[in-house]
Write a structure and sequence with these properties.
The chain is of the alpha/beta class. The chain is 38% helix and 12% strand. The chain has 2 domains: 167 residues, Nitrogenase molybdenum iron protein domain (Rossmann fold); 89 residues, 3-Layer(aba) Sandwich (Rossmann fold).
Length: 284
């Protein structure tokens, strides 16, 4: 089991930005700055949409499109997460690459638990990766703008603001999960790989789980596997916990708040005693 990441770097960053209580409602970091010429951005997944809106602000019009529309999009840019939809990946590869932003291009991707040859796309379950993605989107928007200097100031500040909020969420999750008396996350679909690595959990696929080997009080499942998980849970007298992958939406339409809400659930089911989670708790 991996050790917890050090708090010192995160705390140092937070010391520079102060309290960020209430996700998504911080003061606009570019309120007094010039707005660069407008760009249109097409997105096909929620993390990319959320990042484009948060980093782009008033300078970007974000369009939600379907996988079949990617090849014909006339938006200035496509922002997407590779690995979620093979049709999107194929269409994005055919677009001029200066019109495409791979939102996870600067994230240290790990192998999918299901196939070592495939990179796991669910990087946002570690909020530090969300911060990296925000900077990637900011850089891509800047490169696409006809006014590079103005755009670098506008998008750069907004990207940094999102990154600081993400560090705040990471700190809060570290507090929630340190320590947890049940370190094993038994999952039907191994979508929590990055969360497990970041916060010292062992992710165990349901198919490999051996009841009685370790203390487990809940099984985690994505919506399409509820029946299989409930059968296993009933057989062993334990709970089931749904996991939203946030590919299509998130609570309050906010990706970071979605991570905090999930953190509440995990802390409650993994016996994490130091910090009592609260549904109203936000980063701070």
């Amino acid at each position: 089991m991996k050790a917890h990441r050090p708090l010192v770097v995160v705390l140092a960053v937070l010391g520079l930005v102060g309290c960020t209580r209430n996700v998504g409602t911080a003061t606009d970091p570019t309120a007094s700055a010039g707005i660069p010429p407008a760009l249109t951005v097409a997105t096909v997944d929620f993390p990319s949409k959320w990042l484009s809106e948060r980093v782009g602000g008033d300078a970007v019009e974000v369009l939600s499109i379907g996988a079949s529309e990617v090849a014909q999009t006339d938006a200035d840019l496509l922002v997407y997460v590779p690995g979620l939809d093979a049709q999107v990946d194929a269409a994005a590869a055919e677009l001029p690459q200066d019109r495409v932003i791979n939102a996870t291009g600067d994230v240290n991707l790990v192998a999918s638990p299901r196939d070592p040859q495939i990179r796991d796309p669910y990087v946002w379950f570690d909020p530090v990766n969300v911060g990296t993605m925000a900077q990637t989107v900011a850089d891509g928007l800047t490169s696409a703008s006809p006014t590079t200097y103005e755009a670098s100031q506008f998008y750069g500040l907004r990207g940094l603001s999102v990154r600081n909020e993400a560090f705040g969420v990471d700190q809060r999750l570290q507090e929630m999960f340190n320590p947890c008396r049940i370190p094993t996350l038994v999952v039907e679909a191994p979508v929590l790989t990055y969360l497990a690595r970041a916060y010292a959990f062992d992710q165990v696929p349901l198919i490999l789980w051996k009841p009685g080997g370790q203390r487990v009080e809940s099984l985690y499942y994505t919506v399409d596997a509820q029946a299989a998980v409930q059968t296993a849970a009933k057989r062993n007298g334990i709970d089931t916990v749904p996991v939203d992958t946030f590919t299509e939406s998130a609570p309050e339409e906010d990706l970071l708040q979605g991570l905090l809400d999930l953190g509440d659930q995990i802390a409650a089911h993994q016996d994490c005693p130091l910090v009592t989670p609260s549904s109203s708790d936000r980063p701070g």
